[in-house]
Amino acid sequence: MEVVIDADTGTDDAIALVMAVNSPELQIGSVTAVAGNARLADTTRNALRLLSYLGRPDIQVSKGADRPLKVKNRFSYHYHGPRGLTTRLPTTDSKPIAARAAEHMQTAAEQADGELEIIALGPLTNVARAIMRGPEQMRRVKRIYVMGGAVEVPGNVTPSAEFNIYADPHAASIVFDSGIPITLVGLDVGDAVGFDRNGTDWRSGTSKGEEVSARIMQGWFDSHPGRDVYVLCDPVTVAAAVAPDLFQYRQGSISVDEDGEHRGRTRAEYGDGNVTIALSVDEDRARAFVLERLVTRD
């Protein structure tokens, strides 16, 4: 499966990238960075350093949007840590490619001839800009996996809204209305799978992927003494791309409230539509899958 991973590389994005790198089913052509959990400079640097640390500096990184389409930035450093991560990664000589994310996605979709899939782990600004820039090319995208939304459950920013959709609701509307096949992996399933503070399995590995994921997790628990579970929203989205049988779905369409009191709310209309909505997950199997894919096989 040829994929572009679009990420606002914070803590769970980093763990998801470790999983993706360790998943032989995914041929990662590039990572596109977007502002979201942190500023674009931070999310770009985090992606470059993590890929180098994992021995994959060959995976291209493209800088994308540094702000939402219409609303103001909303960062989440309080959750993900300084510069978007709870641990420091070694520096790298790797640099972003010249092409910006929207242009790069458009070109990748055209060259893949109907075989490209996008795993979108952050606000949908880059994806929306690519659709606006090259609608014909982007209609050739096979599927977009979107981490975002809260369909049958409350949000995590407001009672109505999940962070990624709230951060750029106008971009989300463009993506959901594009007609491109989408799998939506929201808080309905993301909040159901997590690592426990006192767990031992997530901290027991010795490979590079396990080691860096454990450092990220330990740093997060250290900085959040009142929290006992770290939910794995972005890793669960990678799991949906690789092992869709872990989930139960309903088909439909998604509309987004772009403004007002319920900004960022995702409303589902079930039936015909381009969105496959994950509404439940086998929690034990999904958690085991995440752990399995953190193992770097040197």
Beta-strand residue percentage? 15-25%
> What is the count of β-strands?
11
- The percent of residues in helical segments reads 25-40%
- Give the CA-based shape: globular
The neighbouring-strand order within the major sheet is: 3-2-1-4-5-6-11-9-10
Structural class: alpha/beta
Poorly predicted parts: none
- Number of separate helices: 12
Q: First CA to last CA: what distance? A: 21 Å
What radius of gyration results from the CA coordinates? 17 Å
Q: Biggest β-sheet: count, sense, barrel? A: 9 strands, mixed
Estimate the mean pLDDT confidence: 97
| SSE order, one letter for each helix or strand | EHEHEHHEHHEHHEHEHEHEEEH
In short:
With 298 residues, this protein is of the alpha/beta class.
What does this structure look like?
α2 links the parallel β2 and β3. This protein has twelve helices and eleven strands. The strands form two sheets. The chain has a nine-stranded mixed β-sheet, sandwiched between helices. It has a two-stranded antiparallel ribbon with strand order 7-8. 53% of the residues are buried. The protein is globular and about 45 Å long. The longest helix is centred in the C-terminal third of the chain and has 16 residues. The mean pLDDT is 97. Helix content is 36%, strand content 20%. With 298 residues, it is α/β, with parallel strands linked by helices.
